[in-house]
Each structure stands twice: as structure tokens, then as C-alpha cells.
Write a structure and sequence with these properties.
Blueprint lengths: L11 H4 L10 E3 L26 E12 L3 E12 L11 E10 L4 E11 L4 E16 L4 H6 L3 E19 L2 E16 L18 H7 L5 E13 L9 E12 L9 E15 L2 E13 L9 E2 L15 E2 L1 E12 L12 E13 L13 E9 L7 E8 L4 E7 L4
Parallel strand pairs: 1-19
Antiparallel strand pairs: 2-3, 3-4, 4-5, 5-6, 6-7, 7-8, 8-9, 9-10, 10-11, 11-12, 12-15, 13-14, 15-16, 16-17, 17-18, 18-19
């Protein structure tokens, strides 16, 4: 699982997602996942040399560069630990921060943690975030993504999210979650001329303008349930087991939200060990948005959360989406007596999916396949946490993404 502090279904972090995966650029994913399994074991070929330690520090700065964002730095700084050093049943917890800053003025920071309590009976996630992001908005629907026309958009926002899951049966968790965001989204007129776009509002794409013209000073507030079934053998590098997440976010005017709408998502991942150093991972994702007015940053974003790599998150977005993918992972042995090679790994991946207004619109020509390969480097001794670099190719371009933790 990628290490993400963002809420699994709809969050402030997801609203910022499109700027992180521009086609033909270096991108990065936010770290540390809220969807954690039952126990953490050592990855094959990487003995634990820090058994006496209760936790381990993770520090990973890495570059980001694109025509839309400019050049800059993204970082992950956190501490992975067990609240009770003697408890070998409960998976490790995490507390830290992720963030970025680029030359076009985009910046963001998130501080939070994912905590496993009372022999993993409780799983608690909470975080706060703030940011200012400039990115390209292509409009809503597959045709908008295909035509490749965009407007520069600025989003300023801050938010808070929390979730508590309680184990109700073996491997089965259920609980509520809450999120509050204050967002300001609009066309960045200061960048129209520099990007070669018309400077008069009536000359801009009407559908793109309509999607953002009522999102200034927008508050969104949501509550919802989250059901999780988790049989994975490891938090950071699973080699067997599955995880299923089903949830919904209900944005309600009664809670202070500007609009009434709902977001539903189902996500499944499985892992099968082929040998001591080889794993086959596979997954599927389904998303649906409902309501008279759904802000564009809460629509189903194809390419977000690494489904499917090779696509800019946000170029293809609409009210319905599904995607599926598989990834082959191999950890290298010691080569020529060099122990450092044991910290390296290779992956190959491929997937396919669809996005549209309703499932009845789906056609074969609308499918969006993607695939590629990547490199892994283990960052820590005690826990199998990898830094990843993935190159993906899609129908309309390619992406080069970086992050901490597995893609899924």
C-alpha cells in the first residue's frame, strides 16, 4: 500500500491530487496509507538489524518538476513505531508530515498519523492540511480529457479529517469518518497570457468555466461509514492476503457544507507470493459521485491513487469510474558480494479502466489502458518501507512518479 495520510475515499489530499501527476513530468505521491493490515514482518532478503529499537525515522526528500508546477521539492518525514514495544501483534503506527513546494507558487503540507491500538482492535487516523496549488483543469468527462484543452486553476484550501475503525469480527473493521474542508477554487487569470490562452472570460471554454465559477469560498463537510476487511500479512510490503475497503462520504448542508452530494468507493487489493523474493499484486477500484452539484475536485479522478499509472490524475474525471491493475514485484539478491543490491527491487505493472457519466455510456473505445515499470529502494532497516520510481505510459501521454511505499 502506498503510505498516504489522506482519507481513503474523499479527502482534502485527493482534491489536490491532479497537480501531482501531470503527463510527461516527474510526479510524486503523498506517503503513508490509512489502510493498514494486521502485522508487519520483514521483507525477504532484508534482515532486521534493529530489533531492539521500538521505531524508526523515515526521511525522504525528492524532486518534482513539470511545466504546470515548475520545479521543486516534495518530502516525507515521519516516525514509524509501536505504541507498546512488547506488543508484537499490533501493527506499527505512524506520525509525521508530507509536503511540497514548487517554483510556480504551489505548496502544500499535511501533518497527521495512523495509530493501531489495543492489539489492533482500534485503528485511528487523523490529519490536518493546508495548501495553495496551481494546476491545469481539462473539464469533466472523457471527451474533455481527449481534446486536451485546459485552463490554469488555483486552489487554496485547508482541512481536517479523522476516522476511527473498530474490529467487529476477525479481520473485519467498521467505523465512522469525518472531514471538513475550506476551499477556494477559480481560474488563475494571471497565468492565461503566459500559457498562450485568451485573457477574456467569454473566450474561454464555457464548460470548464462553468465547473469552477461557483467554487469560491466553498466549505465541504462530510460524514460517512467505512467498512474494511484486512487479511494482509504486512503493513508496508504484503506478500499474502487481501484488503477490501467500502465506504461513502455524505456531504450535507445540514452540517455546514455548501452543497449536498455523495461519494462512494469500493477498493480491493490482493497479494500472492510467488517465491521468497517475488510477489504478484492485483487490485480493482470503483467510484461513484451523486448529487446535483459535485465539485470537480471530488469527482472520480482517473489516475489518482495510482489507478492507473500513465495518466495525469484529473485529466479524465466524471461521476463514474472503474479501474483494475496488476503488478509483479521482485527483490534483488546480493550481487557480486554487494549487500546494497538487496535493498533494490524492480516492478512491472499494467492496468485498464474507464471513466464516464454513467455506466451505460461505456464503450470499448473509451477504455484507458496503461502500463510501465519501476524501481524500488528500501529506506529503513526495521520496516520494509520502499522509495519508488515508476514510469507509466497511457493513451494520451506518460508519467514519471515518485513516492514512499508501494503503489498499492
Amino acid at each position: 500500500m502506498g503510505l498516504s495520510l489522506a482519507m481513503p475515499i474523499s479527502s482534502w489530499a485527493q482534491a489536490k491530487a491532479p497537480q501531482k501527476q501531470e503527463a510527461e513530468k516527474v510526479t510524486s505521491e503523498p506517503p503513508l496509507s490509512t489502510e493498514q493490515p494486521a502485522a508487519t514482518t520483514q521483507a525477504p532478503g532484508s534482515p532486521d538489524n534493529g530489533q531492539s529499537k521500538n521505531g524508526e525515522l523515515v526521511i525522504a526528500p525528492y524532486p518534482i518538476s513539470s511545466p504546470a508546477l515548475g520545479t521543486g521539492l516534495q518530502w516525507v518525514v515521519g516516525y514509524v513505531f509501536r505504541l507498546n514495544k512488547e506488543d508484537k501483534v499490533t501493527p506499527p503506527s505512524f506520525f509525521g508530515t508530507v509536503g511540497m513546494y514548487t517554483s510556480n507558487g504551489s505548496w502544500g503540507a499535511l501533518v497527521g498519523g495512523s495509530f493501531h491500538l489495543k492489539q489492533d482492535k482500534y485503528r485511528v487516523v487523523a490529519g490536518i492540511a493546508d495548501g495553495n496549488v496551481n494546476w491545469d483543469f481539462y473539464g469533466v468527462g472523457k471527451l474533455a480529457g481527449d481534446r486536451g484543452l485546459f485552463l490554469p486553476i488555483n486552489i487554496k484550501g485547508k482541512g481536517f479529517g479523522a476516522q476511527t475503525l473498530v474490529r467487529i469480527a476477525k479481520h473485519l473493521y467498521l467505523g465512522p469518518r469525518f472531514q471538513l474542508r475550506q476551499m477556494n477554487a477559480g481560474i488563475d487569470f494571471s497565468h492565461l497570457k503566459s500559457r498562450g490562452l485568451p485573457e477574456e472570460n467569454d473566450e474561454l471554454r464555457a464548460d470548464i468555466v462553468a465547473a469552477v465559477d461557483d467554487l469560491l469560498s466553498t466549505r465541504t463537510v462530510a460524514i460517512g461509514p467505512h467498512l474494511q476487511r484486512d487479511t494482509r500479512d504486512d503493513t508496508f510490503y504484503p506478500t499474502t492476503g487481501t484488503i477490501l475497503n467500502v465506504g461513502g462520504d455524505f456531504f450535507l448542508k445540514a452540517l455546514g457544507s455548501k452543497f449536498d452530494y455523495q461519494i462512494y468507493q469500493v477498493r480491493f487489493e490482493g497479494y500472492h507470493g510467488l517465491s521468497e523474493r517475488q510477489v504478484l499484486a492485483f487490485g480493482a477500484l470503483g467510484c461513484a459521485a451523486a448529487g446535483n452539484r459535485v465539485p470537480f475536485y471530488d469527482l472520480c479522478l482517473y489516475g489518482a491513487r495510482n489507478y492507473v499509472r500513465g495518466y495525469t490524475a484529473g485529466r479524465f474525471q466524471d461521476r463514474r469510474m472503474w479501474a483494475t491493475q496488476a503488478e509483479y514485484r521482485v527483490q534483488l539478491p546480493k550481487l557480486l558480494g554487494i549487500g546494497l543490491t538487496e535493498r533494490l527491487g524492480l516492478v512491472g505493472f499494467g492496468g485498464i479502466g474507464w471513466v464516464g457519466k454513467q455506466l451505460s455510456d461505456m464503450a470499448f473505445d473509451d477504455l484507458l489502458p496503461g502500463g510501465g515499470a519501476g524501481l524500488r529502494f528500501r529506506l529503513t532497516k526495521k520496516y520494509p518501507i520502499n522509495f519508488r520510481i515508476d514510469y507509466g505510459i497511457g493513451r494520451v501521454g506518460h508519467t514519471l512518479s515518485m513516492g514512499v511505499g508501494e503503489a498499492f
